[in-house]
Amino acid sequence: MPAKKKSIVLDDLRRYAVARTLFAPTTMGRAIARLGFVQADPIRAPARAQDLTLRHRVRDYCAGDLERRYPRLAIEEDCLVNYGFLPREHLALLHPRIAKRAWDAATQRRATEVLAFIRERGPTHPKEVAAQFSHHGRVRGYWGNTLNASTQLLEGMHYRGMLRVVRRDTGTRIYEVVSHPPADDSPAARARRAAALVELVMRTYAPLPAASFGYLVTLLGYGAPHLRSETRAALRLAREQLASVVIDGTTWLWPADEDPASRRHAPDEAVRLLAPFDPVVWDRRRFELLWGWAYRFEAYVPAPKRKLGYYALPLLWGEKVIGWANLSARDGVERAELGYVSGRAPRDAAFRRELAAELERMHAFLGHDT
With a threshold of 0.85, does the pTM exceed it? Predict the structure, then answer.
């Protein structure tokens, strides 16, 4: 008689959520391929989110390595559920991208002029475009500031697949002209691309509450707005094909070829400070279900209303997120302000040892950022 299959409980999902994405450190290319997508964020406190995410998954990773190595890797800056880095092979699922809002004739004319300029010059800094097309003037940015109209135009051209980011110079995108091959636009081919995108989202963030999975597929409207109806259909089909369990009224989903109860997901004793957008903590609904408290990213919250801090890094110990840390550096010395859900640090000697090791790793990681 075959052994009875173990029923999945929340403890299994917690260990699985941590272990499946915090895999053994490997090369940068392999790590990004395995993650599927790495969210980017410009705030550096103490480092950019993409660097904080990769440091746990790439051997000997130092802050800024992604920017330094990017031109030599088969990866791209582009949009999926938000903006970030993904393996180049996924571009065929996203492009040619058709933006939800079409440009007017004047904007299209300016884009054609800028495209010809960059095609002639090769890799181009936005300042060169702004200088050449100063007559474009200025426009209001997303946060109420004003930008060179040409800068905003470059972002729109990148989004529409006319340009790619070839590298960054001290954080600034350097653009070159790109041409994406035409896609098979038959209904069957569109459905296959949508299904692949939905699978990519699940494999990046699994396990997921069903509601969170639906939300992420909705966010695919950013990376693939032209496949909106197809991704919705793919979501309905995926829900039937994925493995699932209902725990305390919440339906959880994960890839059918993975086993949350596997012994391979046994936690270690390591302490890890995670990026606010790390796959382990990205979904706030899942976070609260797995760890029993609400983590919030408060960089854009007025200081008097912050509870955790400007850029609080979730503090993972083994399989449990027990608190957070705000790191700052003055005169080359890092300072860590730690907070704990219980109100105080664990007294366990193993925790103190692992926390010291993590802060030392963070020091080495930050020490090479130039």
Answer: yes
